[in-house]
UniProtKB/TrEMBL annotation:
Keywords: DNA-binding, Transcription, Transcription regulation
InterPro entries recorded: Class_I_gatase-like (IPR029062), DJ-1/PfpI (IPR002818), Homeodomain-like_sf (IPR009057), HTH_AraC (IPR018060), HTH_AraC-typ_CS (IPR018062), INH-QAR (IPR052158)
Species per Swiss-Prot/TrEMBL record: Micromonospora parva
CDD domains hit by this protein: GATase1_AraC_1
Entries under SMART domains matching the protein: HTH_ARAC
Pfam family membership, one: HTH_18
Name assigned to this protein: GlxA family transcriptional regulator
Domain called HTH araC/xylS-type: residue spans: 211-309
Length: 311
């Protein structure tokens, strides 16, 4: 039987810990047999998990013989991972184990060096930090999970369910995975990635801030604004405007404007029953096709799918 070892570090996030336990323990093959044997292991006999502590029945020695190792996140991703844990994960990988991280567990997996040169993701709030601390990893902030074959990572919280169901499908096929998803009251596949959940904060105020211009752009996003229009309002050349925007927002003026329009469209899709073409016009897009393309590029899903998920 396929053995899944779930690693419980001290201060483990309870939701991240419970997700693989529930998904894999609920998996049943067509003949009714369990699809997995699930073991919870730790470096110490007891660990804290948010509001409670728990006894853990297995030690790190089970990792090396596991078929799949799952690494949940901990409350503080910056906390140092014990060297014995990192060595055990490396040994499991060397023995051919598939290793998957959930949410902030990507930081633990990254600390082993096993993700170097590969794509990975984590909770969207922590993707910039993961990229800064581990520059050899290609961090993708937009997806629900990344499958590199032996090493997999998921985005935050509920994305761990998506990743675990994906593993069930890899191991036992779509029918078994679909049945497991129904028991978890989850779709087997969700539309879009985690980009649709990201909130974008305005740049911090400073002596050279663009905040007055950004406010004007937000207030006038429904108008047909060109780069020249924005530069004229700011009293800058287009070249200088582009440079200031790159420095303070990390993107170009028109891309920032598109993001504002999509954010306004998200609000309308959540709170009204207006047709998509009307929403496109209300937020400043000249055509419904341009709106759909831009919305999909920024959020990773279509306006209709977004409405179904969030209205």
């Amino acid at each position: 039987m396929h053995t899944v070892a779930v690693l419980a570090l001290d201060s483990v996030v309870p939701f991240d810990l419970a997700t693989p336990m529930e998904v894999f323990q609920r998996t049943r093959l067509p003949d009714g047999r369990a699809g997995y044997r699930v073991l919870v292991c730790a470096a110490t006999p007891t660990v804290t998990a948010g509001a409670f502590s728990m006894a853990v029945p297995w030690g790190l020695d089970v990792l090396v013989d596991a078929d799949t190792v799952v690494v949940p996140g901990v409350s503080d991703p910056a906390a140092a991972t014990p060297a014995t844990v990192l060595d055990s994960l490396r040994a499991a990988a060397a023995n051919g184990a598939r290793i998957a991280s959930i949410c902030g567990g990507a930081f633990t997996l990254a600390a082993t060096g096993l993700l170097d040169g590969q794509r990975a993701t984590t909770h969207w709030l922590a993707t910039d930090r993961l990229a800064a601390e581990h520059p050899r990893i290609q961090v993708d902030p937009n997806v629900l999970y990344v499958d590199n074959g032996q090493f997999l990572t998921s985005a935050g919280a509920a994305a761990g369910l998506d990743l675990c169901l994906h593993l069930v499908r890899r191991d036992h096929g779509a029918a078994v995975a679909a049945a497991t998803a129904r028991l978890s009251v989850m779709p087997l596949e969700r539309a879009g990635g985690q980009a649709q959940f990201i909130t974008y904060e305005p740049p911090a105020a400073d002596g050279a801030t663009l905040e007055p211009l950004l406010t004007w752009m937000r207030d006038n996003a429904r108008r047909e604004l060109t780069l020249a229009d924005i530069a004229r309002h700011a009293g800058l050349s287009t070249r200088t405007l582009n440079r200031h925007f790159r420095d303070q927002t990390g993107t170009s003026p028109l891309r920032w404007l598109h993001r504002v329009r999509v954010h306004q469209a998200q609000h309308l899709l959540e709170t009204t029953v207006h047709p998509v073409d009307r929403v496109a016009t209300q937020v400043g897009f000249g055509s419904t096709t341009a709106f759909r393309d831009c919305f999909k590029r920024i959020t990773g899903t279509s306006p209709q799918a977004y409405r179904r998920s969030f209205r």
